């Protein structure tokens, strides 16, 4: 049983959904692997299983402390609005009346970030995207995911949520580090724009940053003295949201402005990595790691290669 009621304690979350593609080829993106004829033989049965699994996972985020699933969550690696429609209409989530915000981004694979929210508790007032302009080694455009800005009222309190999925570590951490540093600089620009309209904003920065809490890019975000990263303690304890080559990483993070620590209307309590047993590999060298949909090209029918992360917020009045 939850130890608090929703009027006291609720969750906000982030979850990388690992290749939530539909089965239909989009000629404008590199999605052929995720079609019935493609390498993954991605058919309606596998897609339906994926939707069921992800909705089950989302529905249980924080349920040992809060009476309902996350009031809102950022997600990564979604192909389009159709998959989000199917996700929120699934048996595990439809009772909670989620809506979502999604924009197609220029990512070559066609995977985007999005924002899901329960309309009963969160009132959406504004959304926009920011394009991260990058170049590859040949000085050609390197297309990646946009950053999503959400503005709205959470229990009547104005909040801003910045949803991210930063460039990956392809070709190595240090080779690609500058791309994530540029993403952090874009976050600074977004924060500056918010503060021009609201001098003391409540801001949550969430996403798959493809960097750990102690990485240069994350430290660059925290150059703003009015932010804190509750994931740092979890990282120091050796905990992670994904497992790669025998090592845990905590790429999935939720960073908050200091006014969530101020005991005002919305007060941060603690953060967690949601690594429930049903989300884990049960056997082998990767026992305890996220139970993903594919191991290489072998279908195993899991959830995602990332665990969800969440923050618990207390409504104090």
Structure commentary:
It is a single chain. By secondary structure, the protein is α+β, with helices and mostly antiparallel strands. It has one domain: Endonuclease/exonuclease/phosphatase (Deoxyribonuclease I, Chain A). Helix content is 19%, strand content 30%. It is built from five helices and 16 strands. The chain has helices spanning 44-59, 81-88, 173-197, 216-221, 231-236, and strands at residues 9-20, 72-78, 98-102, 112-118, 122-130, 147-154, 157-165, 203-208, 227-228, 242-244, 247-249, 252-257, 266-273, 294-295, 298-299, 309-315. The strands form four sheets. Strands 3-4-2-1-16-13 form a six-stranded mixed sheet, covered by helices on one side. The chain has a six-stranded mixed sheet with strand order 5-6-7-8-12-9, covered by helices on one side. β10 (242-244) and β11 (247-249) form a beta hairpin. α1 packs across α2. The protein is globular. The two termini are 23 Å apart.
């Amino acid at each position: 049983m939850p130890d608090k009621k929703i009027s006291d304690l609720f969750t906000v979350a982030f979850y990388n959904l690992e290749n939530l593609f539909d089965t239909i080829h989009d000629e404008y993106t590199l999605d052929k692997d995720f079609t019935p004829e493609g390498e993954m033989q991605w058919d309606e049965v596998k897609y339906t299983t994926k939707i069921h699994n992800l909705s089950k996972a989302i529905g249980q985020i924080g349920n040992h402390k809060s009476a309902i699933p996350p009031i809102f969550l950022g997600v990564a690696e979604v192909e389009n609005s159709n998959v989000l429609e199917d996700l929120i209409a699934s048996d595990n989530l439809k009772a909670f009346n989620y809506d979502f915000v999604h924009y197609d981004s220029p990512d070559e694979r066609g995977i985007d970030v999005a924002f899901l929210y329960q309309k009963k508790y969160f009132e959406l007032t504004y959304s926009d995207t920011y394009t991260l302009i990058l170049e590859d080694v040949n000085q050609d455009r390197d297309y990646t995911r946009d950053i999503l800005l959400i503005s709205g009222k959470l229990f009547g309190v104005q909040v801003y949520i910045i949803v991210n999925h930063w460039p990956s570590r392809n070709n190595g951490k240090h080779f690609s580090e500058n791309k994530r540093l540029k993403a952090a600089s874009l976050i600074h620009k977004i924060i500056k724009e918010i503060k021009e309209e609201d001098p003391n904003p409540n801001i949550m920065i969430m996403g798959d940053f493809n960097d750990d809490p102690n990485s240069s890019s994350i430290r660059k975000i925290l150059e703003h003295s009015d932010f804190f990263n509750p994931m740092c303690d979890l990282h120091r304890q050796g905990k992670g949201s994904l497992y790669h080559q025998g090592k845990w990483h905590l790429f999935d993070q939720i960073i908050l402005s200091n006014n969530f620590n101020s005991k005002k209307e919305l007060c941060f309590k603690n953060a967690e990595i949601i690594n429930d047993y049903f989300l884990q590999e049960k056997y082998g060298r990767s026992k305890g790691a996220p139970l993903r949909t594919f191991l290489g090209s072998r279908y195993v029918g899991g959830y995602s290669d990332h665990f969800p992360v969440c923050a618990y917020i207390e409504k104090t009045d």
